[in-house]
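User: I'm new to structure prediction. If I give you an amino acid sequence, what do you actually give back? Let's try with this one:
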Amino acid sequence: MTTRPRPTLRLVDAGWILWAAGAYVLLNTHASWWAPVCVLVAVLLVWWTRGSALKGWGTPVLTVAAAIVAVWVVVTLAVGPGSGGDVVWVLPEWSAESGTPVGGPVTTGRLLGGLALGARALAHLALLALVLRCVPAERLAEGADAVLGRMAPLVHPLCFVADALARAERSRTDLEAHGLGRLAPRWRHAAASAGERARHWRTTTTLDDSGVRARIRLVVLTGVAVAASVLAMTRVVSGAHASVGALALGAVGGLLLSRARCVVRSPSDLAPAGSALLTGVLLTTGVDGTLAALSLLVLPVLCATLPEGDRVASHESAETR
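Assistant: Good question. You get back a string of structure tokens that encode the predicted 3D arrangement of the chain. For your 321 residues, that looks like this:
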């Protein structure tokens, strides 16, 4: 068993999470169409320049995205959020005892409202998928150890699930890859694989988390969660700000207790953190939401300008040989 008294945090991993957190706040505090559009465009552009080691992860993400779109189409047609505009067609109408009508006239306002909600749901999924693609599973698990200490085993399987799904997708035969295949068994196998890798991680690696430090960590994380919940329920701050603030304070407290050290391996590690800093400054200064949304597009520009660190290293080693 390997003991890690001082875990290592790569700045690039923190940058991806911070960028996703800023985009999450933007999605939940600004009603502009620019927010989900810029998130989706930025994720699609970054997808081709980062996370090549997780090839195959796109198929499960697209499967979940298709399910979200299908659900939102049904919800929009049944009890869509908008009622204004011109009538496109009329569905059979049924009214529940609560008085909420189901069906009836389908208007352009209802369709546009459903499209906006669907785009925001897809943008949230894209943020999660990008973080899981760009941060390797082992580094996610190490970060969970550093922040949560003895509570980290609760989230270890989630750290490995994206990698397990990507591996299951890469192992498919060519015939399955061009058809529907059997989706459920593959997902069950990936979940079992993620659980097995999480157990292996726990048995081979441990964090030096003394009893006193573990109790302090529990008090800090509990206090931050309770404070964020109270602030959100009393509407002192929005739910999005309370959630991100609680995660940030809890992560900083956990990293300080673990005495984690932050490392930068290459200039490309600065791209996510730099873009996240720009978006965070625009959000805190209260500028127009459209400008804050457009700042998200700085990330794909930086990723295209600064090649991924691992690729640079492999290229240099190839040239040396």
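You can read the tokens as a compact description of the fold. Here is one thing that stands out. Confidence is low (pLDDT under 50) at residues 311-321.
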